[in-house]
Amino acid sequence: MLACTLLILFAGGLQSLAARIQVTWDIGYLNISRDGLSTWRAIGANGQLPIPPIYVTQGDVLELTAINHLDMPVTLHAHGLFQRNSTYYDGPALITECGIPPESQFTYIIETRDQSGTYWVHSHYRMEGIDGLRAALVILDQDTSLLDEYDEDVLLTLEDWGQEPNNDLMERLQVTPFANLSTDHPTVLINGINANLSQPIRFTPGRRYRLRVVSMSFTYWFKVRLPGHTMQVIEADGIYSQPSAVDGLDMCPGQRYSVIITAQESLEFNYALNVTFYSDYIPQISGLTPRYHHVPIVYRDNAPTKTFPLIEDHEVKWADEYAMESRDEQTLLEPVDQHIVLNVKTLVNKVGIPNYAFGNYAYNHVPVPPLFTALTTGDMALSPSVYAPQLNAIILQHNHIVELELRNPDTVMVHSYHCHGHAFQVVESGPVNASLLVPVKRFRGRQPMRRDTITLAANRYVRLRIKADNPGVWFQHCHQEQHSYSGLAFTLIEAPDVMQRTLRVPQEMVEFCRILGHPTQGNSAGRAGSDMTGIRPPLAITGSANSIPDTR
Question: Is there a contact between 512 and 368 (Cβ–Cβ < 8 Å)?
């Protein structure tokens, strides 16, 4: 069973609203078949897969202890949590920490005082997440008035699942891309089990269901529809939205939505929740991509399942991630102090293996995690020269309004951009090539939607805004693990001068770096100034005809 302890915090003899939730993951290998196709060495917690979801209430402090019984380091990332004033708990390996060594343990402290909604936790070391080390995290609202909008809360997790350990797959894909189509394409898990054996969700006529849908994917997209019902979107990536009626959700890896579904009044029929697992940039192969699955929605045992005519995707009103409006009080951030343009660039080597970059260099790790460089180089931490080029480091001034313009000139490839440390405002999207007949969408309301993960479609750009009010080092990357693994990432070095005054990395994390052979002082090479002696030169990647100059 999942180790979980609830400790109530007391103040002045009175019970406060906050609790300290203690969860322990004893992390180890499991030989398991989760999709009925193959058995292989996966990664679980407390001897089980799936790992049960974690529920806390806004204001609680989650203490998540990882005990590492693997033969490699482990990290944990709370996907979508800001980790305000504690960037060292954010989880990406060799960026904010070195990792938890084998046969060691560490407790991540996750504050939830300013966040509620739907999230998930996963490893951020190599391919451990897709190999099983992931679970949903639900932060229940402290504001009970929101409960008036629905009667029941239902969690739906969607996962991709491989046919072999993904570290092995990634090594193979560095030599021959998609060498074995039957095993390189993942299958689907719904609520942790084989999607072909999906357990029914029971509906009662007239009741309102909050369906929390979590794409715990590292590869492809999910589409979710419930024909015969309307979905009212109320949350995206932990941020409440203005309610909007849609037919379905089209979700890139890492995204989350909450929708309200009002059950039909009749018991005459049951229904099927349709889940499609697909990728626009992979040729369709019957039975492999896309994959189609159904979750039974049961009104009455033995009732027939209602059928509907097939309709084309373009006839479906999908939730529009570029045009939603937030329900919170944050108006459009302006004026912009720093405008950053980054082009997605691709370099395909002689055997057809792609490397990617946001900017000029494919991202790669360096001996000193950039958080330690930011904390130990004094005034030089404000200079890009102390961060190796392959970190694609961008320095942000404290409290500046920053606009990120991410451009994808590729005519085929689609990406899933995930932002650590912030929820960005979605302010504009449009075509990279002006000759394309694609409309520009500019936000014209009062409160732009904020979220932490968004699709960067082929031949499109997005403009996103954040306020640099969370000093830390924040990883920015494609959530398709193969793309991130191949270089599609950059780092925001946010207010390093403020970090040096306010942050203290736990001594255990410093000791873990020593055990794993990583320096914790100096520039990226562990040296003074801009001397990068000993670091492998970065892989330079040039842009396409539709790129414009990168700016920082």
Answer: no
